[in-house]
Design goal:
The protein is of the alpha/beta class and about 325 residues long. The chain contains 8 helices and 19 strands. The strands form 4 sheets. Strands 1, 2, 5, 6, 15, 16, 17, 18 and 19 form a 9-stranded mixed beta sheet that branches. Strand 11, helix 6 and strand 12 form a beta-alpha-beta unit. The radius of gyration is 18 Å and the shape is globular. It starts with 15 loop residues before the first strand and ends with a strand.
Length: about 325
C-alpha cells in the first residue's frame, strides 16, 4: 500500500460514468430534532452539492418514513422519520436505495408500504423489500448512457419476521441460493449487477470468514460487485477476480448516538461501459459528538489518517490502495 500523497488523478473522461455508494441513512432521533430547528436539509447540507458530482448515488435506507404502524415489540432500537421531515429527499441526488435491512419494518408493514410510496413519489428507485418475496427480490434498474445498472439487495440480520415470504411483505433474506439465482437471471454481457448486503457484526473493523466465502461465491455467480453495510463502521475492501467487495461503508448520516461510531467512507465505482476502471474512496466525518448528524468530507491530515486506516484493514485482502490528496484510489488492471 502507498501512504505518500501523489498527484491527483485525471478528471473523469466523457465516456466514463460513476456510481457513488453511501452507507446507512438513519435520519432519525437527534437528526430529526435538529432538522426541525435548523432546516429541513440540515443532515445533508455539507455533502448535498458533492453528491451531484456522480452519475448514480446509492445508499442504504435504514428507517421507515411513516407516522403509522405499531412499534415492533421485541426491538430495543426502532427508527422512523415523519413524512413532513423527509421532504428533503426529493431535493437530494440520491437515485437508488436498499430497503433490505433490519429497521425498515420497525413500524410494521404499514411503515414499509408508506416508505415505498414516498420513494416512488420522490423518484428514488429501491430494491430489497416488497409485498412478498418475489417483489423483494426484484432489482432496481438505473440506465446510464447505454449501460443498465442492476441493484439487488438482501438482509442477513434479525428479526426473522422482517423477511418476506411468498405471501407476506418484508425484506429479501440473504440466502446464497436465492442471490445466485437472481444474479444469473439479471446478468448479461453488457450490464452491471451490484449486490447490496446488510450483514456482519456491528463495530468490527473486519468481516467474518463466512462473509468472505459468501462474497466470493456471489462474484463467482456473475455479480460485478458487492456493497456492504450494517456494522456502522468501515471495513476493508477486496478486489476479487477484478470485482470490488466493499464489506462495509459504515454510516452515511445518523441521528443515533453510539460511542463506537467513527469516521466512515463513501466509495465511487468508475466504469467505462460495463468495465470497472478505478475505485475512489472518500472519507467522511462520522464521530457523532463532533458532527451532530451533519457529515462532511474529511480533508488534509484527517483524510490521510482515514485512508491509512482503510489501507490497514484492507491489507488481509492484499488490496493496493493509493492515496492522492484527500482520497484513496484502487486501479483495476485488465
Amino acid at each position: 500500500c502507498s501512504t505518500n500523497p501523489k498527484k491527483a488523478v485525471p478528471p473523469i473522461k466523457s465516456d466514463e460514468f460513476s456510481i457513488l455508494c453511501m452507507g446507512d441513512l438513519l435520519v432519525v432521533k437527534n437528526a430529526e430534532e435538529q432538522l426541525e430547528v435548523e432546516g429541513i436539509d440540515y443532515p445533508f447540507v455539507k455533502i448535498k452539492q458533492y453528491l451531484k458530482n456522480y452519475d448514480v448515488v446509492f445508499a442504504n435506507f435504514e428507517m421507515s418514513v411513516t407516522f403509522r404502524g405499531n412499534i415492533h415489540p421485541a426491538k430495543p432500537f426502532t427508527f422512523r422519520l415523519h413524512p413532513d421531515n423527509a421532504e428533503f429527499f426529493k431535493l437530494l441526488k440520491i437515485d437508488v436505495v436498499s430497503l433490505a435491512n433490519n429497521h425498515i419494518l420497525d413500524y410494521g408493514r404499514e411503515g414499509l408500504y408508506d416508505t415505498i410510496e414516498f420513494l416512488n413519489e420522490w423518484g428514488i428507485s429501491y430494491s430489497g423489500a416488497g409485498d412478498n418475496l418475489a417483489e423483494a427480490r426484484k432489482p432496481a434498474i438505473i440506465k446510464i448512457k447505454d449501460t443498465n445498472i442492476i441493484f439487488l439487495s438482501y438482509c442477513e440480520r434479525p428479526p426473522a419476521d422482517f423477511f418476506a415470504t411468498e405471501n407476506s411483505a418484508g425484506t429479501a433474506p440473504l440466502k446464497l441460493n436465492l442471490i445466485k439465482e437472481d444474479v444469473k437471471k439479471n446478468k448479461t454481457a453488457h450490464n452491471i449487477v451490484l449486490v447490496s448486503l446488510h450483514w456482519g457484526i456491528e463495530h468490527n473493523d473486519y468481516p467474518e470468514n463466512y462473509q468472505v466465502k459468501i462474497a466470493h461465491k456471489i462474484i463467482d455467480a456473475g455479480a460485478d460487485g458487492i456493497i456492504g453495510h450494517h456494522p456502522h463502521v468501515p471495513q476493508g475492501i477486496e478486489i476479487y477476480n477484478r470485482k470490488p467487495i466493499i464489506y462495509s461503508l459504515g454510516n452515511a448520516v445518523t441521528g443515533f448516538y453510539n460511542p463506537y461510531y467513527k469516521n466512515n467512507i463513501m466509495v465511487s465505482l468508475i466504469y467505462n461501459k460495463n468495465s470497472l476502471k478505478r475505485i475512489k474512496i472518500i472519507p467522511i466525518a462520522g464521530k457523532y459528538k463532533k458532527i451532530k448528524s451533519q457529515p462532511y468530507l474529511l480533508k488534509g491530515e484527517n483524510a490521510v489518517k482515514e485512508i491509512k486506516h482503510i489501507q490497514r484493514i484492507s491489507r488481509p485482502f492484499k488490496t493496493d490502495i493509493k492515496q492522492a490528496e484527500n482520497y484513496g484510489f484502487i486501479y483495476i488492471n485488465r
